[in-house]
Amino acid sequence: MAGPQVASRTLHPAPPESYTVFTAGCNFKCLGCQNWTISQFPDNRAVIDGFMDPAVLAQESVANIGSKMGRLMAADRIFFSGGEPTIHLPYIETVVREARRIDPGTRVNFDTNGYLTEDSLARVLGFTTSITFDIKAISEETMSALTGARVEPVLRNAGIVAKSAPEKLWEFRIVAIPGMNEDDIEPICRFIASLDKGLPVAFLAFRPNWVLDECPGASRELMNECVEMARAAGLENVSISGVTNIPGNTGEVAAEIEEAYRSSGARLAASHARAKGCKTHPRDCVSCESRDACPLKRYIPKRSC
Ligand code: SF4
What we know:
The chain is an alpha/beta fold. The chain has a domain at 1-134: Alpha-Beta Barrel (TIM Barrel). 35% of the residues lie in helices and 15% in strands. It has 10 helices and 8 strands. Strands 1-2-3-4-5-6-7-8 form an 8-stranded mixed beta sheet. Helix 9 (220-232) links the parallel strand 7 and strand 8. Helix 2 packs across helix 4, helix 6 runs parallel beside helix 10 (264-275) and helix 8 (182-195) packs parallel to helix 9 (220-232). The radius of gyration is 19 Å and the shape is globular. 48% of the residues are buried. Bound molecules: iron/sulfur cluster.
């Protein structure tokens, strides 16, 4: 396996309509990942497209955007997603350079979990037309339990985007996960409002997947509460989307987890991680001695909704 791996690519109708390139691999291990087959590659041995010459991918992307189907769909940009495209940044820069050699007006969206260095973020903002930016939690322990990563770089980078390139922010995306990051929603809204009340914010209803495969999806009531909290914080540009009220079992907090986390949401999320193989708590995948043979990464969900 040589070079950055492309999981798949396709014309995609979700806004911003695009030719979407899903890159394989991620620097997070989010318990409810919708794209777990892509994000946890190569540990789960998913079938992917593999390495593509960047000039070929650029040519293909420009051709698809300009195709009859692309125009019918109003696709107007290449959308790099994953996984986390940041881990393939030099490759993506080359694809964008090649695409703009063919069509200097090529637009680009970068879809990110926000966990990148300031230098990398500056490079992304240098070539991207729009950015979709996930904020998964705001408290360090909820972030750790849900993703295995620290929250500080994400919040720092959200602030940089809001300050230096607000016109490029397509939206901040927040997945509302019942019982796990609910207590983080209101402080996230206040955080974004402190940056700029006009910034676009999209709440996505959690759907059971990967490690959280048996959990219930977000209820309609929870999504409405998200909007109310956002409006109460002063946010002016808020949307919700996703299927709601998918049934499931919330699960129970494992006694072994209680000492490692203070909040009920982090404890519940971490209990699911523990049940599926993660024995390191608080979760910290960067320093975890199991990271090169992470048992969680091999978990195959019983259902995907
Ligand atoms: S076992 Fe270690 S590397 Fe794997 S999810 Fe848990 S903390 Fe992260």
